[in-house]
Design goal:
Blueprint: H1 9-21, H2 29-59, H3 64-89, H4 91-106, H5 112-150, H6 175-220, H7 238-293, H8 299-331, H9 333-338, H10 349-365, H11 381-405
Helix pairs in contact: 1-5, 1-6, 2-3, 2-6, 3-6, 3-7, 5-6, 5-8, 6-7, 6-8, 7-8, 7-10, 7-11, 8-11
Length: about 400
């Protein structure tokens, strides 16, 4: 499995669906074979849907509305395939991120307040993951239920599949039922790949930002320089307190460096992933809105894209919000260091050395950790408003083109 059993529902859900995609850490040869078979099955299913959509697009090229519907489905498929190929190319680094998350973040040594911070992070993760997963499944179910409803009362030669296949043979029993099941299974694999990797990225971002908040708490509450009665004994004198402060501060520096290194690895694995997301989101939201508001669209198709557009906006918000939390919490480490009890340290040689280290750490914290779209832009909540604004602009142009054509 990806992660061991945990009380975090978001981890449990994400681990389950990533296992369905063929992405989990194998501990023996049997699990490794199962992972390879599952991955091959996923890629075959996605290619099958791709061939069906491309064929349908070719035969429907004269119908503008149908082409837009097919392109909307095709963009979702391309995005899912792009995600899985990116993570396959970085699978070693990806599994390193998974194992480090499990070992250092989920099962770290925390006090009561730090456990409270971690519990709050788990609640936010659970909210995002459950909402997005529910809308993704509602969309998938709508794709399957829609042709079943339309086929009520129709004869064999007039039945519909979830995706049109230009073959006369598939309308005959039992070929129709077999094709229907194959399309439904392949569609589900596409849907899982579409949302499970985004769920995992959201969990990582929020847990890293949680670790930055825990680091801030430890910096502010370094209870080392508290007032004590001075004595000649070096164990209770100022030098001993300086040594204790320095040891605690070194631990905080090491944790900060480890978090920065983890964010660099996260950027290496998911920067292309993020670029693909941002390039597709605006077009996908635009096409979803067009399918919902298009006058001649059947009611069953509208339901599909109502769930899809809500899921896309929730996915975009989850993605950009988690990246924004990473930026803000990594930047706030600088303020936490200034609020630490460094003023109480004596102005001896050790005290001055600690102050210099503190200044260096503050300067490094001024450069926030972030996730970029291949260095083209930094992903934050401003990205959410930018993508939504672009999608509305695309929708306006598409609506004007449709009106002029009519």
């Amino acid at each position: 499995m990806i992660l061991e059993h945990d009380d975090d529902i978001s981890i449990a859900i994400t681990s389950l669906f990533m296992k369905f995609c063929g992405f989990w850490t194998a501990t023996n040869n049997h699990e490794r074979r199962c992972r390879i078979i599952t991955l091959i099955y996923t890629i075959i299913g996605m290619n099958f849907i791709g061939v069906v959509l491309i064929t349908d697009l070719y035969y429907s090229r004269e119908d503008f509305a149908t082409c837009l519907y097919i392109m909307c489905n095709f963009l979702s498929l391309v995005m899912s395939l792009f995600k899985i190929l990116i993570l396959l190319a970085h699978r070693k680094d990806f599994f390193h991120l998974v194992l480090y998350l499990q070992r250092e973040f989920l099962h770290g040594d925390y006090d009561i307040y730090e456990k409270t911070i971690l519990a709050g992070c788990k609640r936010v993760c659970a909210l995002f993951i459950c909402v997005f997963t529910c809308f993704a499944h509602a969309t998938l179910i709508s794709y399957v239920i829609s042709p079943i409803i339309v086929n009520i009362g129709r004869n064999e030669s007039d039945r519909l599949l979830p995706f049109t296949m230009w073959l006369d043979l598939v309308s005959i029993t039992p070929y129709f039922e077999i094709t229907f099941v194959l399309q439904a299974l392949s569609l589900y694999q596409v849907g899982i790949c579409y949302f499970c990797f985004d769920n995992f990225l959201c969990i990582i971002n929020l847990h890293v930002s949680c670790q930055f908040r825990i680091l801030q708490y430890r910096l502010i509450n370094m209870n080392i320089a508290k007032k004590e009665k001075h004595s000649e004994n070096s164990e209770t004198g100022p030098s001993h307190r300086t040594d204790k402060y320095h040891a605690t501060f070194i631990n905080c520096i090491q944790k900060h460096q480890a978090l920065i290194a983890y964010c660099d690895k996260l950027e290496e694995v998911f920067s292309s992933f993020s670029l693909g997301q941002l390039l597709v989101f605006s077009s996908l939201i635009c096409l979803d809105g067009y399918q919902v508001l298009m006058a001649n669209a059947p009611i069953t198709r509208r339901f599909i894209f109502v769930f899809h557009i809500i899921g896309c906006t929730a996915q975009l918000l989850m993605f950009t919000y988690s990246c924004d939390c990473l930026i803000q919490d990594s930047k706030n480490v600088s303020s936490a260091m200034y609020a630490s009890p460094w003023l109480r340290l004596p102005m001896d040689e050790d005290g001055k050395a600690i102050r210099k280290d503190l200044v260096l750490m503050m300067l490094r914290s001024k450069i926030p950790c972030c996730l970029t779209a291949r260095k083209f832009c930094v992903v934050s909540l401003e990205t959410y408003t930018g993508v939504m604004s672009t999608a509305v602009s695309y929708f306006t142009l598409l609506q004007q083109k449709t009106t002029n054509t009519a």
